[in-house]
Task: inverse folding
């Protein structure tokens, strides 16, 4: 069998796009093109620059396994530092030269055994493989609140932060109580005159201190890389045993321990009993994506902070009118209202074998075999696609394992064993049925609304342990694939 020289298009230059470029080159793929719609790389960390942004996955786990960073400033590092890390990795591995910045892929069609790509500016290209490294939470969910356009002050989504707007001494409203809103609240409360947090649903908050690494610790990590590797392995073990594996079994001891820590945090951190009750969720901890914060309760108890629990009636010129008739006068309104989690690479128009549109393949909802590929979309792979373990582990670790798996599928083509590889429809349907069944056991189905749930209220994410994910990603089971010679 002869090895063919194959071209690969990578869509997106965020965490998983950069990873793809590094690993594909290492695997001997030299014909790489990375399409990036923005003018800078970084994905989530480029787009989210709101005050207080940090990652709640420990820094030494939230980095590439092949590129540890002894210099992380904190156990949980700020967003800007993470962005700088990705820029540094891209520079070190020469990724930038392969990136076509400002090129948004609008169409991606499989025809005559190759993928034909088109960008918004009319560029095109033909490729043997496509890797959609397009991210998960990147389409802002702008709420349908009456009068939003009538507001006289500045109004923006948390992922589109307007840094030209002065906040000092202003009356700032924040809509939402997810991980984003909680970080914004803690970061802004001491800068602004008044902070009004509009809560539709209370959130459980896991307390988590965030100590800085001392210079001596950083120097030690630099001098002893083996200690850093060991630290990473320990964090990964703790994270999967204490969190990721616990939440997929709502009856587990681990799950009960998480609930107890959150409950205790609420009881001991919030002194005013009325405020405490307003902050008490009516569902189990981790049913929604757990909010992790060392300082949210402290922030919301400050004299210039107000937790508004009466629902939003409408937005007016001067502020937000709540259902109790009160007008909350504001200068700035921040929509920390999350993302449309079912979009994935859309609105890109993807057309597979025989003219099958992704919109039809994903009707009524996105499905992917083991989260990485779709029947009738040969030689097309996704990183952090539908049904993966997005909410309960480091997405970097997830993407690395998925890419190792994808490389094995690509090897089938490169080695000449087949020309096209895609998952079988029956294997995909079986996977989806098993996944749906297993989801019933998770804490995500215990009575809350969250971005984990699909249009039927069934968790769309990986419902098994991280150990199972690791195992599945070790090697493809070829019976599940259709190999076209
Ligand atoms: P989110 O968790 O989806 O929260 C959105 C918030 O907006 C919820 O409180 C929601 O209320 C509220 N909301 C939405 N529409 C509304 C409306 N029309 N009226 C009133 N309230 C409305 O979004 P997020 O906070 O941006 O976080 C998304 C995910 O990103 C997180 O779950 C996490 O996975 C990740 N993230 C991680 C970090 C970190 O690592 N520290 C930081 C930020 C984000 P309901 O609860 O009632 O729906």
Result:
């Amino acid at each position: 069998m002869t090895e063919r020289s194959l071209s690969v298009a990578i869509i997106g230059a965020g965490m998983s796009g950069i990873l793809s470029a590094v690993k594909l080159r290492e695997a001997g793929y030299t014909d790489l093109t990375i399409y990036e719609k923005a003018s800078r790389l970084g994905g989530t960390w480029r787009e989210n620059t709101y005050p207080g942004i940090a990652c709640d996955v420990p820094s030494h786990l939230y980095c590439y396994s092949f590129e540890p960073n002894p210099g992380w400033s904190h156990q949980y590092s700020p967003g800007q530092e993470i962005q700088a890390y990705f820029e540094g990795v891209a520079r070190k591995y020469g990724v930038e030269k392969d990136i076509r910045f400002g090129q948004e892929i609008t169409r991606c069609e499989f025809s005559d055994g190759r993928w034909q790509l088109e960008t918004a500016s009319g560029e095109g290209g033909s490729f043997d493989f496509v890797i959609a490294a397009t991210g998960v939470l990147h389409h802002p969910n702008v709420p349908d609140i009456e009068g939003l356009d009538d507001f006289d002050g500045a109004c923006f989504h948390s992922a589109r932060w307007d840094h030209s707007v002065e906040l000092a001494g202003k009356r700032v409203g924040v809509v939402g109580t997810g991980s984003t809103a909680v970080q914004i609240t803690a970061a802004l409360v001491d800068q602004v005159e008044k902070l009004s947090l509009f809560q539709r649903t209370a959130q459980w908050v896991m307390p988590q201190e965030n100590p800085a690494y001392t210079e001596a610790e950083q120097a030690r990590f630099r001098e002893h890389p083996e200690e850093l590797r060991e630290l990473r392995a320990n964090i990964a073990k703790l994270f999967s045993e204490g969190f990721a594996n616990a939440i997929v079994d709502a009856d587990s001891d681990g799950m009960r321990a998480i609930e107890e820590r959150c409950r205790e945090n609420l009881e001991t951190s919030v002194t005013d009993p009325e405020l405490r009750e307003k902050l008490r969720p009516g569902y189990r901890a981790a049913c929604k994506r757990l909010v992790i914060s060392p300082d949210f309760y402290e922030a919301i108890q400050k004299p210039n902070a107000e937790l508004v629990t009466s629902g939003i009636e409408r937005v007016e010129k001067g502020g937000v009118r709540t259902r109790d008739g009160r007008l909350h006068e504001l200068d700035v309104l921040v929509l920390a209202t999350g993302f449309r989690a079912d979009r994935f690479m859309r609105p890109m128009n993807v057309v597979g074998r025989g003219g099958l549109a992704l919109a039809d393949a994903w009707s009524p909802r996105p499905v992917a075999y083991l989260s990485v590929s779709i029947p009738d979309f040969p030689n097309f792979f996704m990183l952090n696609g539908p049904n993966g373990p997005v909410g309960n582990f480091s997405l970097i670790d997830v993407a690395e394992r998925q890419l190792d798996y994808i490389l094995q599928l690509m090897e089938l083509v490169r080695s000449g064993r087949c020309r096209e590889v895609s998952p079988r429809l029956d294997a995909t349907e079986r996977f989806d049925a098993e996944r749906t069944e297993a989801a019933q056991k998770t804490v995500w189905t215990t009575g809350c609304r969250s971005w984990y749930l699909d249009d039927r209220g069934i968790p769309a994410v990986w419902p098994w342990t991280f150990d199972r994910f690791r195992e599945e990603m070790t090697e493809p089971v070829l019976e599940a694939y259709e190999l076209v010679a």
In short: Residues 54-56, 137, 143, 145, 158, 175-181, 183, 200-201, 289, 312, 336-339, 391, 449, 451 surround NAP (CB under 6 Å). The two ends are 12 Å apart (CA to CA). The first strand starts at residue 7 and ends at 11.
